[in-house]
Write the structure tokens for this entry.
Amino acid sequence: MNKNAFCPTPPMGWNSYDYYGTAVTEEQVKANARAMAEKLKPFGWEYVVIDISWYAHGADGTDQNYFYLPFNTAELDEYARLQPDPARFPSAAGGQGFKPLADYIHSLGLKFGIHIMRGIHRQAAHQHLRIMGTDTTADHIAEPNNVCRWNPYMYGVRNTPEGQAYYDSIIQQYADWGVDFIKCDDICNTDNLNDHTELGYARKHEIEMLSSAIQKAGRPIVLSLSPGPAIIQKSWHYAKHANMWRISDDFWDEWPLLKDMFPRCEIWQDHVKAGCYPDCDMLPVGRLGGGFGRERATGFTRDEQRTMMNLWCLFGSPLMVGAELSLLDDWTLSLLTNQKVLAMLTPDCRPDQIRRTEDEAVWVAENQKTGERYLGLFNLSDQEREVAMDFGDLWPETAQGEELWSGEAVPVAESRLAARLAPHASAVYRLS
């Protein structure tokens, strides 16, 4: 199978983490799926993704001291493969796994995804569980000196035929369940405080094992790699083996993190193509943090939220909403369903940063199939500011622009367009 055909446009969906942390339940996933099917599906949103710890017994995202329980028990089958915790996912009982839940989400016309951690659960190694299709036990493929520095669940997997057999077995299980999307953590950059060293890419063989297993499984499964920052020198390897890779560490609703995404997009802009997407991470909009014990509204202003959507769509990043979808207000819904803005997301629309300073940024994009042209003006400063672009050399025949949020038609004089923007605000235009 051609992995680049798995997602010809950047995946759009919902991920449980920003609201539920480690503690989402089956009914909560179903409620968000129903909300997506009703409100967002007509606009291209389709993936429903369960994030971390779906197998952990007693997971409770409200206690930050025990967010990832250091030596908790997990639900495992006899072949060292993690299973959904039946206390939170009752339809998984009796060895059903996520198939009943995946079937439900598919019945809504949506796609189903899960988060996994790189490696094999340490409980499987300690119990010497057998790897399916081999006479080898988990302790023989595990590397106990290789543990994620922020989550102690898993051991690394050795680069051996038996290690590959383990990855083949878990991916085949996910395919049998009906999984369409896998977000694999602790793998994109395994030393994610450092952008540029081989140390951060020390587990590339596990990326290759996952990719190989997906090819064998016979089901198109999108592979997303986390966390970042992705290593630009390894762009070819990400593109060869995965569909998405994070270009930042976890992204939350804080202006400094959003402003920092501009230089990240700058270095990755030439690596966006069909089936291969540098990933700016989730959209922390709407209501967040309920599973963390402190439900709150996003900390982004409305101007900042539009700036985020403008950059993500011009750049061509996947879009994953972190909000509780059943609580979407009308304004947030309008943010996520602006068809004119979402039209920029296709990889046919090639992004190009024209200028970036400490105070402003200018991006353009041109759809190579339709000829549509776009211009994004961004005020990155803390004061009101005029941001302008002269594009006579680029598109001298341009006569008019339409601002895609307001719908306002703006005449273009002498191949120049300017906007007076509030702090952290932006404007994006379709030019004609």
Remarks:
- The chain has twelve helices and 21 strands.
- The first strand starts at residue 12 and ends at 15.
